[in-house]
Design brief:
The structure is a single chain. The radius of gyration is 17 Å and the shape is globular. It starts with 5 loop residues before the first helix and ends in an 11-residue tail after the last strand. Helices cover about 20% and strands about 30% of the residues. The strands form two sheets. A six-stranded mixed sheet has the order 4-3-2-5-6-7, sandwiched between helices. It has a single domain, classed as Rossmann fold (3-Layer(aba) Sandwich). By secondary structure, it is α/β, with parallel strands linked by helices. The chain contains four helices and nine strands, in the order H-E-H-E-H-E-E-E-H-E-E-E-E. Bound molecules: guanosine-5'-monophosphate and magnesium ion (MG). Guanosine-5'-monophosphate (5GP) binds next to strand 5, helix 4 and strand 8.
Length: about 190
C-alpha cells in the first residue's frame, strides 16, 4: 500500500485545526455519549448533506443503537465563505419520522440559522424527540439562539474545510479540518 503524504494532502491549508487522529478519538467518545443518551431506543439519524456525509458515516459506526438513516439537503452557503439568506430545503426526508427519535446531524453550527429552521421543519412531522449533533461549533457566531445537544469540537471564527466541509465543493475529502490559505479563498475560476 502506498504511504499517505500529509504535506501534499494539506498543501492548500494555512493551519490544521483538527487532526485526523483527534477526529477519530472524539468520534469514539461522541458515539458512546449518544448511545448512552438514547438507551435502548432506535435512532432515526437525519444527516444534512453534503457537509455531514463523512461525519455521519463515521459517527453512526460508533453508535451501538439500531439506526435508520435518511438525508436532507439544504442550501445556505453558496461558493462563498460567509452565510447569506434563509436556508432552503432542496431535498426532503424519505423516511416517516412520526413518533421516532430523530438525531439531526450537521457538519458545523455557525449562525444557527440552518439548524433552527431544520429543527422546526422536523418538529412539524411529530417525532418522539429531536436532538442535534454537530461536528464543529463556531462559538460566538450565533445570530439565532441555538445550541446542539452533542458537539464534536468548538472552533474559533475561521472558515474551515475538510472532513466533509467544502469550499466551492472542493476539499471535502481532506482527512483533517483546517483553514484554507487566504489566496485560495476567492479563486474566480471556481465560482
Ligand atoms: P449556519 O446556518 O449555522 O450559519 O451555517 C451552517 C452551515 O454553513 C453549515 O452546514 C455549513 O454548510 C456552512 N458553514 C458555516 N461555517 C462554515 C465553515 O467554516 N466552512 C464551511 N465549509 N462551511 C461552513
Ligand atoms: Mg452544510
Amino acid at each position: 500500500m502506498p504511504k499517505l503524504k500529509p504535506s501534499a494532502t494539506h498543501a492548500d491549508l494555512e493551519t490544521v485545526l483538527v487532526s485526523e487522529s483527534a477526529i477519530k478519538r472524539r468520534l469514539k467518545k461522541l458515539g458512546e455519549d449518544i448511545s448512552h443518551a438514547y438507551g435502548d431506543e432506535e435512532i432515526t439519524v437525519v444527516a444534512i448533506i453534503n457537509g455531514a456525509i463523512l461525519f455521519t458515516a463515521d459517527l453512526i459506526r460508533a453508535i451501538r443503537n439500531p439506526i435508520r438513516l435518511d438525508c436532507i439537503r439544504i442550501s445556505s452557503y453558496r461558493n462563498d465563505t460567509r452565510s447569506h439568506g434563509r436556508p432552503q430545503l432542496l431535498h426532503s426526508l424519505q423516511l416517516d419520522i412520526a413518533n421516532r427519535h430523530v438525531l439531526l446531524i450537521d457538519d458545523i453550527l455557525d449562525t444557527g440559522k440552518t439548524l433552527a429552521v431544520v429543527v422546526e421543519m422536523i418538529k412539524k412531522q411529530s417525532p418522539a424527540s429531536v436532538r442535534t449533533c454537530v461536528l464543529l461549533d463556531k462559538i460566538g457566531r450565533r445570530e439565532v439562539e441555538f445550541e446542539a445537544d452533542f458537539v464534536g469540537f468548538q472552533i474559533p471564527d475561521r472558515f474551515v474545510v475538510g472532513y466533509g466541509l467544502d469550499f466551492a465543493e472542493r476539499y471535502r475529502n481532506l482527512p483533517c479540518i483546517g483553514v484554507l490559505k487566504p489566496h485560495l479563498q476567492n479563486p474566480p475560476e471556481w465560482a
